[in-house]
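Thread amino acids onto this structure.
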């Protein structure tokens, strides 16, 4: 296959994955984030990068949003939400974050391939995304892409869908959001 053909396969896989998203999950997460205080986002590796993009859009939509681990990230409190993007749901650092957030009374959202995982079980809200796990030694036929690429792509699309739903519920516009776009570039 050439690059264009690979790209088309990726688009087809993503289309199939996105078609499995639950409307109720997007609605529930949008409502939770809208009524929350601060929103904290975390993930490891590429899932963490998708979370960083989500935190940026949350900030542009007017939410106090933070990426866990940054030097300017404040403490989490009872009215806040921790959103964890994790394919496996077993990343130890994320498990510790979920436990700490819950001990302080914050809500925990797991966006994951594996709701039965440790983080999925700890979470107050669990969103199951389709995709393939990082370890595909069993010969996954879901995707031709390496490791958890399909999950990570679906994660970003899901996060963007949540932002769009929040925008719709609050009357937010792209033009107003652009006013919060970085301007020291």
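Threaded sequence (185 positions):
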């Amino acid at each position: 296959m050439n690059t264009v053909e690979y790209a088309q396969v990726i688009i087809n896989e993503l289309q199939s994955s996105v078609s499995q998203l639950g409307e109720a999950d997007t609605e529930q997460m949008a409502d939770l984030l809208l009524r929350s205080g601060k929103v904290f986002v975390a993930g490891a590796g590429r899932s963490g990068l998708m979370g960083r993009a989500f935190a940026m859009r949350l900030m542009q939509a007017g939410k106090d949003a933070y990426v866990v681990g940054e030097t300017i990230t404040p403490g989490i409190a009872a009215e806040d939400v921790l959103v964890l993007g994790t394919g496996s749901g077993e990343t130890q650092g994320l498990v510790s974050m979920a436990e700490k957030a819950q001990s302080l009374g914050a809500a925990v959202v797991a966006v994951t391939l594996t709701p039965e995982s440790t983080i999925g079980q700890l979470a107050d809200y669990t969103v199951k995304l389709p995709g393939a796990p990082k370890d595909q030694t069993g010969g996954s036929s879901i995707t031709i892409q390496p490791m958890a690429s399909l999950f990570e792509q679906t994660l970003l699309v899901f996060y963007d869908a949540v932002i769009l739903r929040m925008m719709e519920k609050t009357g937010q516009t792209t033009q107003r959001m652009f006013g919060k776009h970085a301007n020291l570039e």
